[in-house]
User: Fold these one by one.
Assistant:
Number 1:
Amino acid sequence: MIWTILVVHLLSVGAFSAGLSGNVSSSRPAAVSIGAIFTYNSTIGRVAKIAIEEAVKDVNNNSSVLHGTRLDIRMQNSNCNGFLGMVGALQFMETDTIAVIGPQSSVVAHSISYVANELQVPLLSFAATDPLLSSLQFPYFLRTTQSDLYQMAAIAEIVEYYGWRDVITVFIDDDYGRNGVSALDDALAARRCKISYKAGVPPAAGASRGDIMDILVKVALMESRVIILHAYPDVGFMVFSVARYLGMMGDGYAWIATDWLSSVLDSSFPLPSDTMDSMQGVLVLRQHTPNSERKREFSERWRKLTGGSLGLNAYALYAYDTVWLIAHAVNSFLDQGGIISFSNDSKLLSVEGHNLHLEAMSIFDGGNHLMSNILQSDFIGLTGPIKFNSDRSRILPAYDIINVIGTGFRQIGYWSNHSGLSTLAPETLYSRDSNHSNASQQLHSVIWPGDSTAKPRGWIFPNNGRTLKIGVPRRVSYREFVSQVPGTNNFKGFCIDVFVAAVNLLPYAVPYQFVPFGDGRKNPSYTELVYLITAGVFDGAVGDIAIVTNRTMIVDFTQPYASSGLLVVAPFKKLNTGAWAFLRPFSANMWAVLAVFFLFVGIVVWILEHRINDEFRGPPKKQFITILWFSLSTLFFAHRENTVSTLGRLVLLLWLFAVLIINSSYTASLTSILTVQQLYSPIKGIESLKHSDEPIGYQVGSFAENYLIEEMGIPKSRLVALGTPADYARALQRGPKKGGVAAVVDERPYVELFLSSQCKFRTIGQEFTRSGWGFAFPRDSPLAVDLSTAILTLSENGDLQRIHDKWLTHSSCSLDNAEIESDRLHLRSFAGLFLICGISCFIALLIYFIKIMLKFRKAADSSSIAQDQGTSRSSRLQTLLSLIDEKKDKSPRDRKRRKMDRCSSSDDSHGIELERNPKRSQISVDNNVL
């Protein structure tokens, strides 16, 4: 390690001065040298060595690639050691190497990249997947495989697809493991998931079975049962073996391994039966390489080369394509006139201590040009399209998802950066629009650990004997919702029954105990109760806890089990129908307009009919009365005057239609007023309450106080804290003028329970907030999710309603009787009408009798009959009665009819006389002639 630090320091200090080494090749050299650094005896190294050698052979045999220039390869064994990798890289720099393939280890890549930067030699790794090997820090480093950034994104989508929220990572504690887990943490956070525990394993030979045993024992005590294993093969298989020994490969667990396992399965299959048995049901990722004819031909060739003893994995294909990538880039470099030349590094020449022979290393003058050609490459290799994006990553990243079953494995789907999880090969989806919606994500069925086909829940309660502490408020009012059983820590009430019923529906046992919260003298602050969950005092809270914004920011709530929202409660009074209720259907303006229109229509009809209709003629007084009578009688369709003009009939027809509509509307409105109970309150809702200056009551401990102050802008001085329903009633009855309140603002469940026993108050206006009651748990608690499902089940099967009816359905206010009473019509509702009719009758009779008495006095004064006192009284009575009974001819029609009757009577008597005396008739005729 000291040597590594020393070399890095030597390479990163000093000033640069270029000098030609004299070793300058011609424009098209006979050979170019490249190097390769990897671990020979590793799973990846064994296949990479064969793949690189075959690729170099194929390039040299293909004259169309380098056009006669031979590609020479030198290999170094790094043994996954950063220092040895550094030494190997330095040795390459002494031999005019223009590019280096490798290393396979991310740890070694970090060290060698400093050398590549200093000497400007492109470093192309086919297996270093550490996402922190960035192009900004290491401009001469290029990854020809996929970054773990995409692999961790694929794992995060799998976790989200199965509905898990917490995972545990077991990883190798070096740059490769730590940086990969960091990328996974970011990918999970983007999907509201998280790593609940990170278990680092000492790298390489530093990890013993005992160390892994200690690590997995701690993992077993955690809640999460989804474990991501990101390690090297030797450590990974040891983890599986210990996990099987501890019973962690059974039902309820979910294991996901990164592509280290797929590379072993592909290259060393079949594995020993004990090894396969220890990882049954594991999901594994493998870098996806599309099927092609070239790939199939290379696979056949591979089997012949290895005799079937070594399988072909994805990293062998990437190593093969890396050689071809360098060959194409070198060819472009030479075609563009590039010259392979090297210069001495003045930084190394200035370093004292020449025993290191640093002066032998040279800078590749065309390194930047060659690196540019590599990044611009665009061809089809065994691994698919070889092209790089702006981040220097391979385009179209994709992974196979396989499931270890029995003695083999089965592919259950794919992941691609283009369309997420799918059962279709990624290359078939690239022509479609990118789609990561939940509906489009799909995988085949999985056989999970324990030979189970049921998706693991992903978490359980830890087996460490800890019981959940559930905080419950000690209410002093509305105890139907939550109340403590005296002398115990047990609770009862609507909220408690719902929680117990939901817990009983869970497919696992939940150890919990209720912990009282509050002093028992007043309702506690529910916001403070919620904050104690985040502080770790409580593991959850059960009660009538409203789900509001400031609380959801710090805890997770279950599905609401009761709807809630703020309502305004105020006193009301019944609007008595009264003696003048019949005037209420129309406003005063409406009555005035009706009166004017009745008179106006009567005048219009009189004008149109006056000249041609005898019924609209006569003295002015009579015509005025006719106008009034005609217009008002149309209200009841009782007019008797006929209209003869066309215009008059048209006006009357339209007016009668209007009268019909007015009558119908009046009847309907009056019926509603007389039969439906009318309530009145000076407060119309929260807005009218807000703009007044009257005091407002609220329940102690409720979120209504903060809402009214912060959201509604009501001064705190106007708010009055009330503790019990009795306090509500007293404050409302007193009113603001007597030290009470104008209204009370509280949540719907409390208001409904209060009004069930207080019939003098009503809710005013609409519910002005929408929320509900739920059970609170720490953020990302899986118990909140499972209880939400249980609450929905209670709602669907009717148990939630039965619990509600048990505790909250009782009322002392008889609404049915009130409705029946309001349907009955009382005498007081029509007293005004009877009074008007009675007064009009009385006045008419009074006027009539006054007129009769005046006539009677005139008749008595003109009488000259002298009788005794008794006879005089009798005659006066007879005269009065005769005046009352006498028929008076008021109208010209009546007088005309009487005159005609008299004439008819005279003519008849005269005819009789002529019949008796014909001579007299003749004399009469003669006289007429004369």
Number 2:
Amino acid sequence: MKLTRMLPASCLLLSLMIPQALLAQKPASSESPSYYNIGGVLSNNESESHFGTVIAHLNFDQQYVPRGTTYYDKTIRIDKNPIKTALNVCKHLISRRVYAVVVSHEPTGDLSPAAVSYTSGFYQIPVIGISSREAAFSDKNIHVSFLRTVPPYYHQADVWLEILSHFGYTKVIIIHSSDTDGRAVLGRFQTTSQTNYDDIDVRATVESIVEFEPKLDSFSSYLMDMKTAQSRVYLLYASQEDAYVIFRDAAIHNMTEYGHIWIVTEQALSANNTPTGIIGLKLNNAENETDHIKDAIYILASAIKEMTVNETITEAPKDCDDSGVIWESGKRLFGYLKTRNIRGETGQVAFDDNGDRMYAEYDVINVHENHSFVKVGSFYYESEKRKMRLKINDSSITWPGNTGKKPEGIMIPTHLKVLTIEEKPFVYARKLLDDEIDCADDEVVCPHFNITNGNEQEYCCKGYCIDLLKALAQRINFTYDLALSPDGQFGHYQLKNHTTGIGTTVKKEWNGLIGELVAERADLIVAPLTINPERAEFIEFSKPFKYQGITILEKKPSRSSTLVSFLQPFSNTLWILVMVSVHVVALVLYLLDRFSPFGRFKLSSNDGTEEDALNLSSAIWFAWGVLLNSGIGEGTPRSFSARVLGMVWAGFAMIIVASYTANLAAFLVLERPKTKLTGINDARLRNTMENLTCATVKGSSVDMYFRRQVELSNMYRTMEANNYDTAEQAIQDVKDGKLMAFIWDSSRLEYEASKDCELVTAGELFGRSGYGVGLQKASPWTDAVTLAILDFHESGFMESLDKEWIFHGNVQQCEQFEKTPNTLGLKNMAGVFILVGAGIVGGIGLIIIEVVYKKHQIKKQKKMEIARHAADKWRGTIEKRKTLRASLAMQRQYNVGLNSVSKSVSQNSEKTRYPILPPLPRTPERAWPKDKEYIVSRKSTSAGKPPPRYMPTYATDVSHLIV
């Protein structure tokens, strides 16, 4: 491979990835090779000589080299120019079939070791670094076959965490350069802190991250920002040159005096102006190249020996032009190398998945006066427990300010930024009007900064939590600025990918109040903030200032008053039995009175008539009258047996009416329906139906509770689509009947139920928890706030807040309202009025029918009467004619035989027997107007009696017949 001109290193690396010719590799033998060439790219003659010596001794060590196997050394000198180094690797190492390459570190940079890694890695030849510590070599996408016997710089973050845990510092500020190694240190610190330190009380958290560009001129602006933070523990990763500038400016701002703690890495420790009291790290055997060479060779021999036992090793590539096929044995050999774990000259040698050295040992260095470095501890491998251990002699440490007293590591501010959120009755927020200058005396200014549009509006806050905040500030002596939640949320998290120097991790990103506290933009949260495990992982909580749980709010179901509400006291079956009983008793009364020998008796009247027995109609009337408690004036039973049954029926009616009256009061007056739901275990909630909607607030603690509960997953999937942004909207929808069940904190729902007696909480509390004050992790105010809250509970202050803000005395009013009978309205008794109206209409209808029927009967009677009168007239006319003929015949007969009788005598007799009446008009019915019978008939007619049907014959010539 010939080059006509010098190319940049990056171009060389790309050219090495694409060989000029790809030739087929010759078939591998069925057995592993009997000899192995080990390549070395070393920095000096001493290292090359030692490399050959170690391999020569290795061949006589049967523990690592079996019989029949021989190792040979092939070394070259590392060059400053990475292109020349890469060409030499191809020309002098790969061409001699090296099975692995040991590479040293060129003093001026990492380009040459990187060139060796690129070249060898393309052919899958393992490369063992003995001095390269940059984070870039951990990326296996680039350095595919590189591993090292020295740890990368960013592994010092593991020792940092052990030192912080030893001294009890839980809040730090990390200062790092904005390069690959600097970001890798930060990522390693955060990942290891969350992974290896389960106890959140002792876990170190990062309060602030200061990232600077390398080769800086001044660090003063960063230091001014750091002064406003609480933490006084600074973790520094910087080069020797950058550390010099940082220490210089820190001394100017008095940040290297007592109260400040600096923990730095190896590079920063080597600065010429390291202040007194700084704690740094120093890697053991970091510059002992000969020991690392020996460990690298013996690790390689151990891996080859194990590999030959398990599988066949093929021959390595012979030159850079004969590499068409990747050397699979080299790839597997790299896997065997990563599993090594031996005790070497530099300590316990093992590798992680990235091929980086594990179990590296460090000395803990403390800078004393006159810039003297003193070892005060060590980070070493403990063989018995097979883990790393930190040991520090605290008494030998000199802290900044040249004192032996350990600083607190934190500055406790007395002016805090407090956040809250509008949640009645705990916090009432009202917008400050334009004509108002300041809030009222019982209110506190609480501006709201809208993160959406960047506008800030002035609000005034009061309530339960505001009074609690005032009491806390007075008790533990701090001042505060109060503000509302920027996005109006309590806070929930979302899982998002986060890229660090060592890879991609998934992090929980919080919003709302929790997000502000996690991002350390606030010091305190005084709000109805529920304590739960998800939040407690990221923030601190005080002891609960109010204990509560989760409950269900719903609107009291109003009893539907139908037109037959008055029939509710009895069941349908009982009503039917009563109706049947009335008619059965009436029938039996009728039969008893009918067949009883004592069912008739004489009335005390002059005519001597008797009263008839009880008929069926009267019996029914009697039975209904007794049942309906109406007076019975007539139609009562007359026999003894019937009257006994009547008494029994009267007792039955009394019991039925009394029971109906009592039950009617229970149904329509005293009873108040409570709730539709029995609680969270109600089957209608667990298997939510279409007509039952339930919801909570998105991202709230209640929402998190349902996510945690596996048995409520079916219910949560249904209600998730109905969840609201705020509790206010949900409560209003419950009042309007749009939402049937709202699941929320019991304190708020009990307040709403006490304020509006139409609302009620259903079932018992579940998911019991408490409201706590939220603080930052490792906040110095946590203990003080907790002790103050406990004291408030004992003194009765919290109880007074409950009475003042939550209940308002409305609970007693609602309880009294529950005990007060309902006032019956028209809709309750409408059926009775409709029944009366139906009776009136029915009576009117019946009377109309009776009138029509009576008219029909009268008309029929008139027709019959006319016919009867016509027949009587005809019959009278016939009789008159017969009588007249008979009279004429008799007169003629008497006139013939009795002519001797004097006419005067006859006339006198006639006048004597029949006085003369005044003339009357003749009618067809009366042929003889002077007849006595006619006179009687007139009297009878005037008395209302009909006239006689016929009259006797009257003759003037029969006076001789009178005696």
Number 3:
Amino acid sequence: MTSLFDQYEQDSQRFVSSVKEKNLVVNYPQSGEKPVFQKNRINFEFSALISHLAICNEYLVYVTSNNVLHRIDLKTQSKQPEIELNRVVPGVKLTGLFLNPTADHLLIGFSTELLYLNKKFSKPKPTSKLRGHEITAVGWNLSIEQFGDSTTKPILLGTSRGIIFEVEISADEGLFTSSIESYCKQVFDLGKGTPHAITGLQYCRVGRSDRYFVIATTVDRLFKFFGNNSGPDERPLLQHLFNKYLGLPEGFQEIPSSLDYSCLQIYTAPGKTTPSSLGWLTETGIYYAQIDPTNDDLLLSGTKMFSFPDADPPTAFLMTDFHILLLYPYYISVLSSLTEQLVFTDYYNEMHGRLLNIIRDPVKGTIWVYAEKAVFRYRVNNEERDVWQIFANKGDYKMAKYFCRDNLENLDKVLIMQAEHYFKKKQYKESALCYADTQAPFEKVALEFLKCDDAPQNMIEEALKAFLKEKVKKVRGEDQAQMTMLVLWLLELILRQLSDLRIRGLQNEDQYILVQAELDEFITDNHIMKCIRSNKRVVYDLMASHGDESNMVKLAKLTEDYKKVIEYFIHKGDYLQALDTLKEQSNADLWYMFAPEIIDAETKAMLSAIRCLIRPLDPCKLLPALVSAENSQPEEVIRYLEYCTNDLNCQEQAVHNLFLTLLAQYKPDKLMIYLSIQGEEKSMVNYDIRYAFRVCKQYDRREACVKLSSMLGLWESAVELALSVSVQLAVQTVCQLQSSRKLWLKIAQHVVKEKNNISQAMQFFSQSDLKIEDILPFFPDFVTIDHFKDAICSSLQEYNQHIQDLKEEMEDATKSAEVIRNEIQTFRSKYSVIMSTDLCCICDIQLLLRPFYSFPCGHRFHSDCLMTEIMQLLPEKKKNVLGFLKKHLESNLTENEKEKTRLEIDSILAHQCLFCGDLMIELIDKPFISEEDYERIKKEWE
């Protein structure tokens, strides 16, 4: 919350600013935007006027007009005890406070004395070796790691007489010395014996090397020293550096001045250890230079002079990244170090007293201004926010883009300015690349290039291509429409260039090769290829409109649109090229799709390629193409079908039917081989037997028809067809039947009547099962008995032998019947002895206690035990019969009926032994434990 005092101060500043001189410009921030330099007053209470103040690492030290020193740790808001300097150095004028960057060491300068105060001390200690010198400047090593809380490490001290001392002060006093200086050595004299008060002194190590540079200023001169140190452990550290300048003529930058003061400021960028620039306050202005430690000769580069906005020079100044703050007694003016223009003026109320100095905390980077009665702190808010605009206006677009890298809106403005700059300079390609990175409307940029008449057409097209390519890279995945438009436009431009070059006959020139390479690179990009795949038809049409068939084929291959490639070659009539493309594909659908056209034109090559495929094609899907080619090159089709049936073991009926048809028509010699391989079993052959019969009959393949008729069971027809071929074939056909008397008679009739060959008929008679009397009716009447004498004699011998065999069989049957009658008679007189100790084989109880059964094998069972056991083993039907008889026996029956029932029960029970009979043998695969009892018995055993 703003205090009443602060509000009064702000109102006073506005009033003062309105009545000050008109050439002092006040720059207030825009609405809602904080000012770059925002001032806050520190609420300290001062007992007297402030005379000197120093701050480092948020540690504040100030001295009031009554020579009382105050120390405040701003981090902890704690104060250390006050120190009255008059008690230490009475009656001597205070000339300066020098606080090192870590705030561990404080040097208090007087006109003839120098006091040292450590942060841990409660009172300062005088130096003994510097007594009599007025210290006007201190050069602390800007590398913070060089400091410690107990020693200052080597530092440089400049005096009012121009002498530079190197000294190291220790907070720990030694045992044998009372001096706090570890050493103190004069290393250089700027005036060469003539007093020149040193107003500024800085030294710094270059990185982590052993090289150092020193900057020193007087009222009107700036000195620079550069070189190696004496050694990391040598003291003085910089003696060697200064020694090389002792014998040289004086080298310095001189700017005449009538002022009795000057000011040196070294600027180090945040996070850096080596200073980047320096400023030197002179009567003429602020001398500014870049520090370049890599240049031994110059060290300072890019020098320039900033003029003061007022006629009078400021009393002090401070440098920031992009501004120079000039301190006047009652206001601060801020210059832009980039434009050298006044950008801001901040007025102070005179009630605070005169402004004394402006300083910066080298560690925290905060800016402090102190007056006689107040202390102020400036907060720097986004100092670089307008820097981009300055660089852009200067034409330094690289720096402008660097300083607006986090602000996309400003970056876009810079890029547009850069693009317009290139366009005006007719650097169209560079302009297009810049435009591509902006948010400028695509249509506006494209029209700007298309309307340009100041350049050759090819130059404009190259710029458009560059613009479109960059835009393609930035298109998001979901902007398919924009992506399609850009890609097609780019393709149109490139294809047009290629077309123009072809028309001019420059296909073999470097220019055509470069454009073709550009197209190849473009269409092989994954991002582009995805778009092309989605718009293949449009892209093909675009290429066709330019007559660019080679690129169309190349694109089709890249997109794996081999259908388009093959269609192109077929349309062109180059079937072998189409086949070569097809050979590279593993997609069977493409083979099926183009097989009819290629087989019709290049039958042999196509079918050879199909046979060489690793994954065979389905012959059924190729049948239309094979049928169309059977008239032109049937041998190749037959060869392929042989491959399908033999190597692929194809069992499709349609394929085998076509194969059989072609064999019947063109290769009859292979037809019977094929039929033999297929076999005689109708269910096992792969062709349609009836269809095969019709085809073989159509092409008069009689031997095949005989075989097929036999398989169909048409034996009479088969024999008739076989007789038309040869008698031997007919005989072979009949031999396939076991009972074939009728067919044999047909063959015999054919041999006798048709052939009229008696001797052949008699030979045939010897092969068949017919008798001589069966074939006699077929012979003509003029045939004499002599032709059949041998056959008749042979037949009579066979009949006589058959009669003898029958007699022997009758005798054997009579003997067997006699043996059986003797065994039956013996069995009737057979008996078994039952002892009183014999037990039932089922229940192990004495057998004679109940009715029982005794079997010849020796097993004996109680009748009820046997019935119980056998009931479990009998088939279901017999089991029901036995159960019924048992119940029937228990009913009221006559003796005869009971006896009859017992006999029926005996016929079942006594039919065979329970242990030795067929029932037990049939139960060999039955488990000992039934499924119902298995789980119960299993648990009992567990």
